[in-house]
Design a protein that fits this description.
InterPro entries: HAD-like_sf, HAD-SF_hydro_IA, HAD_sf, PGP-like_dom2. The protein is of the alpha/beta class and 233 residues long. It is 42% helix and 10% strand. The protein folds into two domains: 18-30 and 99-229, HAD superfamily/HAD-like (Rossmann fold, 3-Layer(aba) Sandwich); 31-94. It contains nine helices and six strands. It has a six-stranded parallel β-sheet with strand order 3-2-1-4-5-6, with helices on both faces. Helix 6 (128-138) links the parallel strand 2 (120-123) and strand 3 (145-147). 42% of the residues are buried.
């Protein structure tokens, strides 16, 4: 899956302004936000440093360059960003090889979107190597395309990933529903002009204009997404 091949034959639900659904990955579809933190703790422990648990909210949901850079600066660890990135990706892959739990409601939502032929994209700050590994569990057939954090000039919290996904699908970002779990991701989606459904995973997210907060993906189905778009008309 790549972010450069546009989807063909796009169909949208009749009577709805919804053109596509764009989904975050870590913490939204797969229960892996904790995996990243555990790997960061282990890697820095091997370097002789202990991570402060309060830093977890700083590094969650963002690009690895930002998270890893913050942790290097905060700990003073003697390691370069490129080397640390490799260690973190390797550690994460090892963890998901053993287990990759889906968030409640994720499999049902993806199946429903596929059944109704709703154009869907996976949009993540994770690197391509990680996305492709996770897609084998999520089911690549559910996504017309995917956008990785190392494939765009600027990743979340910038709007670039969501703008790239909308362009690849040939749809208007304003007519896209985005499902995210962190403030960083929500910020990116809103900057792109999308309607956002927030399902908080680590830190709290407050409701706002064009942003609906739910407690679980179990609360999100196609009727719900169509309703959000109908309300904005």
């Amino acid at each position: 899956m790549t972010s450069t091949v546009p989807a063909l034959g796009i169909r949208t639900g009749e009577g709805s302004a919804l053109q596509a659904v764009l989904l975050d990955m870590d913490g939204t579809l797969v229960d892996t936000e904790g995996f990243w933190w555990d790997v960061e703790v282990e890697v820095f422990a091997s370097l002789g440093h202990t991570l402060d648990d309060s830093w977890r909210h700083v590094v969650v949901g963002g690009p690895m360059t930002r998270s890893a850079g913050f942790l290097i600066e905060a700990t003073g660890a003697d390691i370069g960003l490129a080397e640390l990135t490799v260690l973190l990706n390797d550690g994460f892959e090892a963890r998901i090889d053993h287990a990759l739990p889906l968030m409640p409601g994720a499999a049902r939502l993806l199946a429903e979107l596929s059944e109704h032929e709703i154009p869907t994209a996976l949009v993540s700050a994770s690197h391509r190597r990680i996305i492709d590994r996770v897609l084998t569990t999520l089911g690549p057939q559910h996504f017309a395309l995917s956008v990785a954090g190392d494939e765009v000039p600027r990743t979340k919290p910038h709007p670039d990933p969501y703008l790239a996904a909308a362009a690849g699908l040939g749809v208007d970002p304003v007519r896209c529903a985005v499902v995210e779990d962190t403030v960083t991701g929500v910020t990116a989606a809103e900057a792109a002009g999308c309607q956002v459904v927030a399902v908080p995973s680590v830190g709290p997210i407050t409701p706002a204009a064009r942003r609906t907060v739910v407690s679980s993906l179990e609360d999100v189905d196609l009727s719900f997404l169509h309703g959000l778009m109908t309300e904005m008309r």
